[in-house]
Amino acid sequence: MSKPGARYLPAGLPIPVAEPDGLSAPYWEGVRQGKLLVQRCDRCNTWQFGPEWLCHHCHAFDPAWTEVAPRGRIFSWERAWHPSHAALKGHGPYIAVLVELPHAGCIRMVGNLLGDPEQAVAIGADVEGVFEHHPESNPPYSLLQWRRP
Amino acid sequence: MTARGRDERTLRGRVAVIGIGETEYYRHGASPDPEFKLALKAILAACEDAGLDPREIDGFSSYSDDRSEASRLAAALGTHRLRSATMQWGGGGGGCCAAVANAAASIVAGLADCVVVFRSLAQGQYGRFGQAGGIHTVSGERSYLMPYGVLAPPQRFAMRVQRYMHEHGVRQEALRAIALASYHHAQANPRAVMHGRPLDVEKYDASRWIVEPFHLYDCCMENDGAAALLLVSAERANEFRHKPAYLLGAAFGSGHRAAATAHNAPLYATASFDTVAPDLYRMAGVGPSDVCVVQAYENFTGGVVMALAEHGFFKPEEANDFLTFENLIAPSGRLPLNTSGGNLAECYMHGFELVLEAVRQVRGTSTSQARRSDVAMVIGGPMVSPASNLILGSEATI
Predict the structure, then answer these.
(1) Which of A48, A92, B67, B245 lies 20 to 30 Å from B120, alpha-carbon distance?
(2) Using CA atoms, how far apart are residues B167 and B298, in angstroms rounded to an integer?
(3) How far apart, in Å, are the Cα atoms of B313 and each of A21, B290, B291, B292, B303?
(4) pLDDT digits over B165-196, tens only?
(5) How far, in Å, CA of B81 to CA of B78, rounded?
(6) What value does the mean pLDDT take over residues A52-65?
(7) Is the pLDDT of residue A1 over 80?
(8) Domain B7-125+219-393 adopts which CATH fold?
């Protein structure tokens, strides 16, 4: 999944970009460089994802961006069969997982679970991140996916 | 008014529903009428039901960014004047009871005297909720979901229900019982889009997955139509054609950081009623055992399981025992549920058809009347923020 063009889901789904105000720009630039950056308040050390301009715990503005290891465990999951987008017609099932990062305040993020889309999935299972790069896309973007180690 | 009366901040017994009306309910895209015309038809039907001159409406309330805008409605209807125009922020169908609460608050506060609460939807005219198309780039919350195929409500809510089923050992049969009850009640309801199209265990089990753990029949329909009700102050409640249904309580909102981006709510496996249900019971002055009949918004049956548990009808660990077909059907089940067919089988009127059905239960005019129906609850769209709920009661309950 590190070679350009390898993708879990077909092309044509919405492409993620930072908001006009730039709130999530460090996150999206990070994944393009193969790094997972999330917010951690440098005043109270609270982890936060998705990003916000304010630390929800101590109300310090502009929580710092910190690199964390892309690994975690499956908090929940789903296997989608119905194509809710034209790009998915005829594609067949795919798995989305909600992954929590115990080493980063148990923040959670959604991705796909790579491998057999009909595999059994267990809540609590360990997963590691895989960056999926799309430099050929307009605009270019990268995603953080997950696989069983 | 006594000092205590002035100080008591409540909607309990202060307003009543005096008219209800809806258009014919259609499959999505099948309405011959544009959305705004549907809204007008439903409002006029509610006025006809009440025996009220539509020009006396002086307030409008809706939710989910309804496109039938209040000032245009007031001009179209030729109302004498406009005094209240309230839109509930966010939450989609979670706002169906909040719109009633906002209207009631306008009346109790003296801002308006006769408020129409409504929802109008023509998905053929404006696009379906269940399909994500025509989007090239996404930002914010959606950017953390849509590139991974978490596109539309089924995928957005399935992981929440999956986690809940995991935490509490809820089985698929509990979800199935909710679908069976809605379809059963729809067979008695000629308004229902699924009237004449019954569902049984075999058909449910054989139906395709939309997204595990939701079969096709765990998911709401998508429809065109409009529904409306009229609220006035309790003092005027008996001036109209039908037995009034009084508002005993209403509440809306969600718990601590419920809308934290990208599925980061601290309490994840919830229907968002952990704080809202206690608020409702406190205002209404009743408890779960007083509630005779419930209309609970089915975006997905799994959300109904969570919502009913959070309203105290059973503990999450008891869901499999409580949620059986026999317990959920009128007239004599333990808790008759979605007696019109609801979002699954009557019409996905974004939950507003549920509010109208609760009024019918209090009046005693449902096509699946519950044996006891003096206290009727509506639970709005679960798993969203803000969610909302309400309780209606007959005159004897206030």
Answers:
(1) B245
(2) 21
(3) 45, 10, 9, 11, 14
(4) 999 999 999 999 999 999 999 999 999 999 99
(5) 8
(6) 98
(7) no
(8) Peroxisomal Thiolase; Chain A, domain 1 (3.40.47)
* Number of other residues whose CB lies within 10 A of the CB of residue B266: 11
The whole-chain average pLDDT of chain B stands at 96
**Per-residue CA distances from B259 to B274, B359, B388 (Å):** 14, 31, 15
A134 within 8 A of A26, measured Cβ to Cβ: no
pLDDT at A6: 86
Residue A3 has pLDDT above 90, yes or no: no
Residue B101 CB-density burial (10 A; 0-12 exposed, 13-18 middle, 19+ buried): buried
- Compute the distance between CA of residue B66 and CA of residue B11 in angstroms, rounded to an integer: 24
**A54, two tokens:** 């304010």
**pLDDT value at position B98?**
98
Q: What integer is the mean pLDDT of B57-71?
A: 97
Does the structure show a pLDDT above 70 at A4?
no
Look at residue A109 and give its three-state secondary structure.
strand
Catalytic residue list contains B281: no
The one-letter amino acid code at B353 reads E
Looking at beta carbons, which residues of chain B come within 8 Å of A29? Answer: none
Choose the mutation target among B141, B142, B143 for the interface with A, i.e. most A CBs under 10 Å: B143
- Residue B211 to residue A17, Cβ atoms within 8 A: no
How many angstroms away from the CA of A11 is the closest CA of chain B?
A: 9
Q: What is the pLDDT of residues B241-266, one digit of tens each?
A: 999 999 999 999 999 999 999 999 99
Mean pLDDT to the nearest integer, B347-359: 98
Concerning whether B297 is annotated as a catalytic residue, the answer is yes
Cβ–Cβ below 8 Å for B155 and A86: no
Contact between chains at B210 and A82 (C-beta distance less than 8 A): yes
Burial of A81 (0-12, 13-18, 19+ CB in 10 A): buried
Q: What is the mean pLDDT of residues B135-151?
A: 96
DSSP per position, B302-359: HHHHHHHHHTTSS-GGGHHHH--HHHHSTTTSSS-B-TT-HHHHT--STTHHHHHHHH
| Interval A71-81: pLDDT, tens | 999 999 999 99
Cβ neighbours of B312 (radius 10 Å): 15
For chain B, give every domain's residue range. Answer: 7-125+219-393
Q: Nearest 10 degrees: CA dihedral of A54, A56, A58, A63?
A: -40
Compute the Cα dihedral for B31, B34, B35, B36 and give only its sign: negative
- Give the burial class of B203: count Cβ atoms within 10 A of its Cβ; 0-12 exposed, 13-18 middle, 19 or more buried: middle
Say whether pLDDT at A14 is over 90.
yes
Contacts of A59 (CB under 8 A, 6+ apart): none
Residues from A in contact with B at Cβ < 8 Å: 9, 13-20, 23-24, 28, 49-52, 56, 75-82, 84-86, 88, 93-94, 96, 98, 107-112, 123, 139, 141, 143
Contact status, residue B31 vs residue B193, Cβ threshold 8 Å? no
From CA B90, how far away is CA B98, in angstroms rounded?
11
